[in-house]
């Protein structure tokens, strides 16, 4: 395998990883057969579901047509990025004079593979969520346990696709390229992350434009229920749950899953180069294979725990399943380290300890997120109380809780990184960063469980919406409402996990950044001097990028929501709509969300790709390092703040709707809806989109770093090229900020 001297056990283990990756895909196929065999309910339910399905399919088709040209251009850019750079010694030893050609084709092909896998996870996952929601609604007419089982297993299909494809892609590239794998792995990671960014941004704009418009008119102005069929935006809202929370989130966690593999393999290869020990590379892959097995056991057992231990408590059943998976992974990681690494190194326990730290800190972040977003915790109760005094106090309370939650989350991540400093501190910076990459491996080892819980949210939400629009029996509605409430918690928690994993992965990639530069310029050193003004300039620019990115996305949602409000109001003015005698035109609202998502997608994508290139070539590698540090810190704080504040506002509204402080229709309820609509674009658009943003920027910086250090001065050609790119960025910002009146006649 690529000039690496593997033992018979190591060779067999690598092939076993491929088998386990395939097992994950087979399990996903088996779950799909089980879900599809379930009933779909009444003809009225099928009519409503068909409208949701057609809208979601149409949106994803249009999004794909928007993204593909951009991806096509980047294939050639990635090919050229290897062609310009000096090949590594490992690449030259393996491929000789053909090293540049082989690696150029390898990186471009890996980029396409990563993008394709991310697209498959997002698109197939969303389609299975759509298939699951009507079956959950139908099962709720008979049994709570059956409805839970279908909802959870529909989401598990996406989770196992994430596990299987992420592990399959990273392992295959390693097997083909061996010591020269980092160049191709960067392409694989970049492809998956870029597609996740597009799907996150597009899906987030779509879903929140519909949600905000539907709530402001339907609930506040008309006093209707969440999914009243008289509201013209309800179908767009249901479609948005799928393209945002299913397709977008699935692609997001997939790219985090594959990027943590990429970073651990790159750093492991660097340590193998230093020590000659191959276990630095093999161990992370085997741990991920263990994670697939533990995820299969955990996800399969959820219905069992619901019937036996949890006794009808869906969230508790998922918690038990996750803890079972965590216990299996931690135990087997130590057993693997004892029998495998101990042969090569007396410090056999260190890698297993880092993986375990990732699993444990994942749980800690889960609990922190739940504390600030769950309806039974003090922060949400405090926000709900503030609704008695109007929208302003509601918003202020939510802002305060969001800011506080961000501080505790960043301290938890700092503590996770500190464990690597404590364990590996005596061995040097390279070992510490490798330990951080193993924390990332542990953090997302149970991606199958996490995606299952996340997809459970929109599947249950859609089922509840179908139930209300189809006027299903009260008993069925009660079951779906319970599942929907659990889904709100699972969505908030998985967002917190995704943000934490983004930062851990970014820190590991930052270590890879230094390693890659040293291969080209051995005199670069192990540290970046923050006292260097260029570095500090990079730090400041990096800190500002996530804020600009968030601002552009929130503005995009606001513009689209304006058009949605206008369209819904017009439909209520049509004779018979308000009385329920005539159905509104749902297609206009779907069209507004679709148009807005596609129009706003490309400018932000262009910005994210070009900014690190300009910083690197104009300010050089040291400043680019400072830039990355600024992006990581600012992005993490902002993402957690947005996600948790939005989730807290959402659940405060649900507390009021349960009958507290006047209940539905009261002034407190209207104030809570305003808070929720403010939080919607934060928690479901701008906040989650910062996860792939952080990693896209890190991966681009890794790709260009070996090129940047080759140019010690700014040549006229570089100056002209960067000037052109700056003009393109100015155009992208102005394009994104240009007024657009969706659905509003001039």
Strand-residue fraction?
A: under 5%
Helix content: over 70%
Rg over C-alpha atoms, rounded to the nearest angstrom: 25 Å
Oligomeric assembly:
single chain
Distance between the termini: 64 Å
Q: Tell me the series of helices and strands, N- to C-terminal.
A: HHHHHHHHHHHHHHHHHHH
Shape: globular
- Separate helix tally: 19
- Could you list the spans in which at least 5 consecutive residues all have pLDDT below 50? none
Number of domains: 1
Could you describe the largest sheet, including whether it forms a barrel? none
The average pLDDT is 84
Annotation, overall tally of beta strands = 0
Structural class: mainly alpha
Task: List descriptors.
mainly alpha; 746 residues; globular
Could you describe the 3D structure shown?
By secondary structure, the protein is mainly α. The chain has one domain. It is 84% helix and 0% strand. The chain is built from 19 helices and no strands. The protein has helices at residues 8-36, 43-84, 89-95, 99-139, 144-177, 181-221, 234-275, 279-308, 314-340, 349-373, 378-386, 391-424, 429-443, 447-469, 474-520, 533-573, 586-657, 667-708, 716-737. The model has no long low-confidence stretch (mean pLDDT 84).
């Amino acid at each position: 395998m690529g000039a690496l001297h593997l033992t018979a056990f190591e060779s067999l283990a690598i092939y076993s990883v491929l088998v386990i990756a395939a097992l994950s895909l087979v399990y996903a196929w088996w779950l799909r057969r089980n879900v599809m065999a379930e009933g779909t309910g009444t003809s009225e339910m099928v009519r409503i579901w068909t409208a949701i399905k057609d809208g979601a399919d149409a949106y994803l088709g249009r999004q794909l047509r928007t993204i593909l040209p951009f991806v096509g251009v980047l294939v050639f850019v990635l090919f050229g990025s290897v062609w310009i750079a000096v090949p590594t010694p490992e690449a030259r030893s393996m491929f000789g004079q053909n090293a540049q050609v082989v690696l150029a084709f390898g990186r471009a092909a890996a980029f396409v593979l990563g993008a394709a896998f991310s697209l498959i996870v997002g698109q197939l996952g969303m389609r299975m969520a759509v298939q699951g929601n009507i079956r959950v609604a139908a099962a709720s007419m008979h049994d709570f346990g059956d409805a839970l089982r279908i909802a959870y297993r529909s989401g598990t299909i996406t989770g196992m696709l994430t596990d299987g494809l992420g592990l399959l892609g990273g392992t295959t590239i390693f097997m083909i390229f061996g010591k020269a794998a980092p160049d191709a792995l960067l392409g694989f990671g970049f492809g998956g992350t870029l597609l996740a960014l597009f799907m996150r941004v597009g899906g987030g704009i779509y879903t929140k434009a519909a949600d905000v418009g539907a709530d402001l008119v339907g609930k506040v102005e008309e006093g209707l229920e969440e999914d009243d069929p008289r509201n013209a935006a309800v179908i767009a809202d249901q479609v948005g749950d799928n393209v945002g929370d299913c397709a977008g989130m699935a692609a997001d966690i997939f790219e985090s899953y594959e990027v943590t593999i990429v970073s651990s393999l790159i750093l492991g290869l660097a340590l193998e180069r230093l020590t000659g020990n191959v276990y630095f590379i093999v161990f992370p892959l085997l741990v991920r294979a263990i994670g697939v097995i533990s995820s299969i056991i955990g996800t399969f057992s959820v219905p069992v725990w619901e019937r036996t231990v949890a006794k009808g408590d869906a969230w508790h059943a998922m918690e038990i399943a996750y803890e079972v998976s965590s216990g299996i992974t931690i135990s087997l990681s130590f057993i693997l380290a004892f029998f495998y690494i101990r042969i090569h190194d007396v410090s056999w326990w260190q890698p297993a300890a880092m993986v375990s730290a990732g699993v444990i800190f994942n749980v800690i972040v889960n609990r922190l997120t739940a504390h600030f977003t769950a309806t039974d915790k003090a922060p949400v109760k405090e926000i709900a109380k503030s609704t008695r005094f109007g929208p302003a106090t509601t918003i202020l309370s939510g802002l305060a809780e969001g800011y506080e939650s961000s501080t505790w989350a960043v301290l938890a991540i700092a503590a996770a990184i500190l464990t690597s400093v404590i364990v590996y501190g005596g061995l040097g910076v390279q070992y510490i960063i490798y330990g951080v990459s193993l924390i990332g491996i542990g953090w997302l080892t149970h991606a199958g469980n996490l995606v299952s819980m996340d997809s459970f949210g929109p599947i249950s939400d859609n089922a509840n919406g179908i139930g209300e629009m189809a006027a299903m029996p009260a008993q069925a509605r009660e079951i779906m409402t319970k599942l929907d409430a659990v889904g709100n918690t699972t969505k908030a928690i998985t967002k917190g996990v995704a943000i934490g994993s983004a930062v851990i992965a970014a820190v590991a990639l930052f270590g890879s950044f230094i390693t890659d530069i040293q291969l080209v310029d051995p005199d670069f050193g192990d540290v970046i001097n923050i006292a260097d003004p260029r570095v500090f300039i990079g730090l400041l620019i990096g800190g500002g990028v996530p804020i600009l990115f968030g601002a552009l996305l929130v503005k995009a949602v606001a513009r689209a929501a304006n058009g949605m409000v206008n369209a819904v109001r017009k439909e209520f003015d049509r004779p018979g709509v308000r009385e329920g005698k005539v159905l509104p035109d749902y297609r206009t609202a779907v069209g507004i969300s679709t148009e807005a998502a596609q129009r706003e997608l490309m400018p932000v994508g262009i910005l994210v790709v070009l900014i690190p290139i300009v910083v690197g070539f104009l300010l050089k590698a040291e400043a680019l390092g400072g830039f990355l540090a600024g992006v990581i810190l600012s992005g993490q704080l902002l993402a957690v703040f947005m996600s948790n504040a939005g989730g807290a506002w959402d659940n405060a509204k649900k507390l009021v709707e349960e009958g507290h402080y006047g209940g539905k229709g009261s002034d407190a309820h209207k104030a809570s809806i305003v808070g929720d609509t403010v939080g919607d674009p934060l928690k479901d658009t701008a906040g989650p989109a910062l996860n792939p943003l952080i990693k896209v920027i890190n991966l681009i910086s890794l790709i260009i770093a070996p090129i940047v250090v080759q140019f010690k001065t700014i040549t006229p050609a570089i100056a002209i090229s960067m000037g052109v790119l700056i003009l393109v960025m100015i155009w992208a910002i102005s394009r994104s900020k240009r007024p657009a009146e969706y659905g509003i006649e001039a």
